[in-house]
């Protein structure tokens, strides 16, 4: 990823003040990594208890969104849905940011919403990047995420040292929305791979093959994949129902994005949805 020289995070401007909103399962380890990389971290949360997630690192907590916005050079958002981001921006956040600030949306959404966010920011001379991440909570904690960036190249370059604080790979894909499009394709292919795995293991189960041993072989063989590696690690009996629901929500986003662009993706969508829907039963089979 970084042939011929150091990572940008090793040489980047550590005087950039980074704001963070969204200290949940994914956002908290991102914010922690940013602070530990040496960037001044500023945070705000609707619930004061959420700030406990960054208690172990240096940070400045703000009582209001406006106070946070006025103090930062880059504002990272890691909230659940596009509408949440749009509500924040229109409810005074964009207006409170200093001209030249960059807003980064790390949540997963549709490209058209990213374009709306960029326009809201541009009205206040604020830059915008969509930068969803792949790797889940485990990748955030281990700082091995893949970050997919859409937006102006100069802004992406400016923020790359921040992204590298929690990423193993940072890819600039092109204009605003291209990061979200890449994330949706990434998620869709992962779920299609789940469907393949579910079908293969169903056949193996009908032959009374020891599934645990087979999965161990497949993980180490040429059939190995992220989906296989995640079984029993990122995907467990305890969290599989939640993950399945999140995947189905992601497929709603994918279907909407494809419909907006008139892409012939019905068969791909159906296959991925089948993979998401079958995940719970797969884990039940493997943990019998």
**Gap between N and C termini, in Å?**
41 Å
How would you spell out the order of helices and strands?
A: HEHEEHEHEHEEHEHEHHHHHH
Q: What is the overall shape?
A: globular
User: Over all CA atoms, what is the radius of gyration?
Assistant: 20 Å
Number of helices: 13
Mean pLDDT, rounded to whole units?
93
Largest sheet: 6 strands, parallel
Number of domains: 2
Give keywords.
2 domains; 9 strands; six-stranded parallel β-sheet; single chain; 288 residues; N-(1-d-carboxylethyl)-l-norvaline Dehydrogenase, domain 2
Question: Can you walk me through this structure?
Answer:
There is one protein chain. By secondary structure, this protein is an alpha/beta fold. The chain folds into 2 domains: 168 residues, NAD(P)-binding Rossmann-like Domain (Rossmann fold, 3-Layer(aba) Sandwich); 105 residues, N-(1-d-carboxylethyl)-l-norvaline Dehydrogenase, domain 2 (Orthogonal Bundle), CATH 1.10.1040. It is 52% helix and 13% strand. The protein is built from 13 helices and 9 strands. A 6-stranded parallel β-sheet has the order 3-2-1-4-5-6, sandwiched between helices. Strand 1, helix 2 and strand 2 form a beta-alpha-beta unit. Helix 4 packs parallel to helix 5, helix 8 crosses helix 11 and helix 11 packs antiparallel against helix 12. The N and C termini lie far apart (41 Å). The N terminus is likely disordered.
């Amino acid at each position: 990823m970084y042939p011929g020289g150091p990572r940008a995070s090793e040489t980047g401007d550590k005087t950039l003040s980074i704001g963070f909103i969204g200290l949940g399962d994914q956002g908290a380890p991102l914010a922690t990594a940013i602070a530990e990389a040496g960037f001044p971290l500023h945070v705000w949360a609707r619930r004061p208890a959420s700030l406990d997630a960054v208690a172990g690192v240096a940070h400045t907590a703000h009582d209001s969104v406006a106070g946070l916005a006025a103090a930062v050079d880059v504002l990272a958002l890691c909230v659940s849905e596009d509408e949440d981001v749009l509500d924040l921006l229109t409810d005074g956040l964009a207006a409170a940011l200093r001209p030249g600030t960059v807003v980064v949306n790390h949540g997963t959404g549709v490209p058209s919403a990213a374009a709306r966010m960029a326009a809201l920011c541009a009205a206040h001379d604020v830059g915008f990047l969509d930068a969803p991440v792949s790797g889940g909570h485990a990748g955030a904690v281990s700082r091995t995420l893949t970050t997919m960036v859409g937006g102006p190249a100069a802004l992406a370059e400016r923020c790359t040292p921040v992204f590298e604080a929690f990423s193993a790979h940072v890819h600039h894909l092109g204009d605003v929305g291209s990061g979200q499009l890449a994330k949706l394709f990434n998620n869709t292919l992962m779920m299609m791979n789940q469907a393949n795995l579910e079908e293969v293991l169903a056949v193996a189960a009908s032959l009374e093959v020891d599934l645990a041993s087979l999965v161990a072989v497949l993980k180490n063989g040429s059939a190995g994949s992220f989906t296989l590696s995640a079984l029993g690690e990122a995907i467990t009996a305890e969290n599989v129902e939640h993950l399945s629901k999140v995947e189905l929500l992601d497929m709603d986003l994918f279907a909407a994005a494809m419909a907006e662009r008139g892409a012939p993706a019905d068969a791909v969508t159906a296959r991925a949805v089948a993979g998401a829907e079958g995940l719970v039963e797969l884990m039940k089979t493997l943990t019998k």
